[in-house]
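2 proteins. here.
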Amino acid sequence: MTETVEGGIRLGGEPEPHGLGASVQAADVYAKAAGTYPYAADLWAEGLLWAAVHRAPHPHARIVSIDTEEAAAMPGVRAVITHADVPGDAAHGRRVADQPAFARDVVRYYGEPIAAVAADHPDTARLAAAAIDVEYEVLEPVTDPEKSFESEPLHPDGNLLRHIPLRYGDHDVVGDVVVEGLYRIGRQDPAPVGAEAALAVPRPDGGVELYTASTDPHTDRDLAAACFGLPPEQVKIVVTGVPGALGDRDDASLGVPLGLLAMRTGCPVKIAVTREESFLGHPHRHPTLLRYRHHADSEGKLLKVEAQILLDGGAYADTSSDALAAAVSFAAGPYVVPHAVIDGWVVRTNNPPSGHMRGEGAMQVCAAYEGQMDKLAERLGIGRVELRMRNVLATGDLLPTGQTVTCPAPVAELLTAVREAPLPALPKEGPESEWLLPGGPEGAGEPSAVRRGIGYALGMVHMLGAEGTDEVSTATVKVSGSVATVMCAAVEAGQGFATLARQIVQETLGIDEVHVASIDTDQPPAGAGARGRHTWVSGGAVERAAKMVRTQLLQPLAAKFGMSTELLSIADGKITSYDGVLSTTVAEALEGKELWATAQCRPHPTEPLDETGQGDAFVGLAFAAVRAVVDVDIELGSIRVVEVALAQDVGRILNPRQLHARIEAGVTQGIGTALTEHLRVAKGVVRHPDLTAYALPTALDAPDVKIVKLIEERDVVAPFGAKAASTVPVVVSPAAVAAAVRSATGRPVNRLPIRPQAAVSGS
């Protein structure tokens, strides 16, 4: 039965749960379910024009000439722009300004923007974009990152984006047992389900307003303003409904051409990209090559980890430096390793661009170091769980970067929880008609060819930015009558911040009706919504602002009754004193006044890794343990994930229903990484950029996810003590699935996604 919630009261009279720790329903859930939620693709404006982008058909080429005359002469076309029409900075970038708004002299990846068109109809715009005549001198693309080191520079800044040589302990130590491995991680696309769209509206002052599903509006505004040659105050970004974000909302590929077209034509301009353009236009997970050598003594204690990690950054820098820092820092995993020699590189190629995706860097190395732990256990004749238990990290231990783990790190407890969880029943324990075999119900496989495997994996991620990133967020809380309003530029991208902000104010001020204001860049910045930062930093800012309002509310009452504000409490809309003498409602205490406060939250600073990979680079860490159970058809190579059991340290559960949903979604994304999601690229050209060839896991592919334990050991430096929730399952579950396939087949699995031939017996 569907419930409707209006004004915080369920129909039927039962009050909605509220405050921290309650399963508060997201405010927008009913609008999304009913199809009335306003996404960017739904935007409209009077006099609207439509935009289309002409993209390069080659991964590497020299541009000889660009002829736009035919396109500009087409009926209905209002403007055609190229690099020559960019009035400001020629290049932009989130870390390094190395990517042009439109390719000028050289094309560096397949699908790079060359020109853009504005027309009175979307079909006209697309036809005009196709009519732009570009003459190319096709060049040989550099698509192998190993060859990038010796290739001619693909960019004036060179091919090497970053090198981190981590050196820790005694480099000459050799273990009694040494195992080696080579691992490859493929290219994963964010594959946003919602259409990517944006609208630009010119302003009377010569600036422009951009309506887009940005997850970091202030950074996107600054990038766009630099390209427009305008001061930031003349560019405004208004955040429209974000249909989830896994990295795909973090680029300026839509805003810059739209803004230029709007200012050129003096009309609103909209774009809604096709699925093919979506695959070509935004960054992907870094494909990675990893070489490992683990040293251990005869008892299974790790002595040294040697690793070489090579990330394919694509044509431009984007956030590749951040991904490499995470990969190198966590290359040994959540294990105590007294000695380490780890080299990490990220290089340019003519492959599709790489950038931020959930768990970047950490996911790739997790698959590799867990593969090494399984090899080591087999070589030593020690159980896979037992080997891990002998080496797990704990609070007070050191990372190979030399940083002390000061946050809770209950890794042993997490591993114990998944090991002791009951295993799912075997298929043969039920009627054959109910068996779910690999390949789907009534698949082609024979039950006799199916083997069951069990795999374990541990993993870790960092929270917030790293290496000196100034993490800061600002929030304002305003109370008027019985309604509170939160103003914070933290974008709700599915991580639940808008719901959390309501819970914080409900808990602090005892007000049930809390609204979160819409977001634009006229508000102070809150930063990007990644690595749990809005729970920590923006949530912390909301809490501080709410507490300041609370003090304003309680001070007159405390003074009147001759007591301190600490002796007054707020709960369920009532203010009471410790002795019961004072009892009044929040609305009565306000006396018609409007109270408001603005506050900031800034975590303690970090530092960049030095020339040997040492430094306190991270604010906090989060850990998880996963056990995967798979059935593998060893004749066909098909794989079914039967169950994923997970234990995770979450610091504090702020919203149980929301937390469980985030973990389950993270596991499902990890299943896609392990088994199905692979953006195929041949010589730099994306093959079949559609959701037919790129197989996202569906509800039929999602396994039974059992959250066997959530450890609430609060991180004292974090507001509320909570940790990032959704990233760790994405990082750990692919490694656990790979381990389970190894267990079922006895074959090495050193590539993600797992290819069918890797699971076929005797292949």
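next one coming up
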Amino acid sequence: MRWLVGWSSIAASFGTVGAVGHHAEGRTVHPVGSQLLWGDPDPLWAVGDWRPDEIRVITVATPEGAPTTRLAVLGCCGATDEQLRVGLLAARGGALRHLTAWSGSYTAVVQIGRRITVAGDLAGARPVFHTPWANGTAYATAALPLADLIEAQLDIGHLAALLACPETPEALGDGTPYAGVKRIPPGHALILREGSREITGYEAVASLAVAAPQTDPVSAVEGVRDALVDAVRARLTAPRHAPETLPPDPGPVPGMGPAERRAARGAPVPGIGSDLSGGSASATLALLAAGLPGLPGTVLGHGTGAGERLLAVTFNDLSAQGREDELERARAIASNPRLHHVVVAAGEEALPYASLESGPLTDEPAPSLVVAERHRRRLAAGSADHFVGHGARQVLDAHPARLADLLMDRRRRHILRPVAALARAEGPSTHSLFVPLAVYRAARRLARTSYRTGLETAASLLPEANRDAPDLDTPADASLASLTWSRPGPAARWLTGEALAEVSVRLQEAAIRPASVQRPGEARARAALARHAADQRILEQAAEIRSQRLHAPFLDNQVVRAARALPESLRVQPGARAAILRRVLAGAGIHDLPPGWGTPSQATSTAAGRIGLRAALPDLIALFDAPLLADAGLIEARVVRKALRAASEGEPLPLDGLAELASTELWLRRLVTRRGTCWTGTAAPRQRAVAGGVVPARRTLQP
């Protein structure tokens, strides 16, 4: 786990003692295992196993007596030093957007005198957290260190909102699972001036009154292509890193080659690799990374790395059926001589919910905790720098609520094809005949519903979410449920009435609070992307392989920004993501794709989740025998155990909701049994987060 942390305080202006944990003779509190990037009065540290090239500090020479001007960029950034200097000078004048316009995935911190600016990303994969501390403000890219710093208790209300409305920013607010630790929204920056803080957005907000000018579809797709190519190139041009020294190879093992033995010891393969699941997103990244020519030290380039092949990893789940076509497409793509194909086969040991007793403590809870072992087995066979296609669906696909945006712009004809596709997905039945009319009515109702009315309606319906909750069995049902300003999450049906009532109050308060309201489709799409990006961040922590870096270019700022320029009429068409990526590859000179490329494969993951739940049922029942969530008043253990048994027997219950409950309970248990703290020094906190090691009862918390 890697993070940066720093703080700003007013005390340094007066030369007083103790405001930021400093004494005249030196620093008295600092993070464990840290690397100091710059010192007092507003210090900044990098913590964790950062690579040397992932930390870049640029300082601009200033006249004597002028404020210090410097920039720290942590992560993978494709900008040159000169471009960083230009961005630093632009940020000094207030143009914060320049800090987010470079290729790659990174966090930028600017110091200009006593003013500190920390820019978050657009998707939410690299968030920024802050908390009041010692007459100032501390900030970090992880919430747990700040919780340790202030000895925070759990915020049970936030956990309730996370389970009840995970894709509703109004319910989550700027909170975290730790009381007192706040998060800045995606697309915003945190500005600190001698301890005081300000949060400001750096992206333009579309008007509700006038439709934004539509970008030409051809140029919009070309923009996505250029952004993806730059994102991949930023990783390819970075220095290569060999895995750190690991336990010695035990020697030949029957049935295992050198690659399998290395994966068993937890060592990635040196070089660059990519997922190759057979889907359009991972295949696009693999083909782009293998085909970019003329880069020194890159795959099949004309420099020091000439002749290197891209390692393409395909995961074959032996316990789930129905993936034969997907595996065949992966093999067809891997026939490219620039790819070295590795198939990782796994059975019950890699099912969802496997090995719940093991795994590290992550920064926050997320549904990906129950599939961490599944991903870890795949990634262990990957490379030191490994591309994953996560986020493509949320970045490129159209959220169903975008149909309402089209109606707001009087573009009714563009909704005909998606509505007809939903009717076909229902199959030949009487119900399918009414799908187009039902979807059109729901989209028109959402287009005519104001932001405040939508939230107030959702708040009034939320307390009943645990009674007669609908089963979203078909794509049409799911689309109809998504055509609202806010809807309950899949785990809401198992929350207590008290927990749902508290989240309802949050929505009611948000409805009357002034806000920069976006169009309903755009707002819902951004919320879904932020939710997925947060889950991806936690997955990287839970399935982390030492010396390995996961790269998700679809979540990069420049890719997200380019995808937002895609016309809504192009997004909503059936198969839009596969068509866009096909044109991206064609623009890069790649035309030969296997039949069926881009076919969705969501059903196989659902089948694997049900099989995994059935196999791990005894462990899950034990997990919810005396759950901490019940102690906090969020669930009733008996109800959840009954639902687990029913789902394992094939009852059509939302498996995503059960995964969220299991992940949150698992995270709570790891948190309260944790040892140690993130800080050291004579003035370090005496207790860690969740002081005392117990989850407080709900009745002892402030609402």
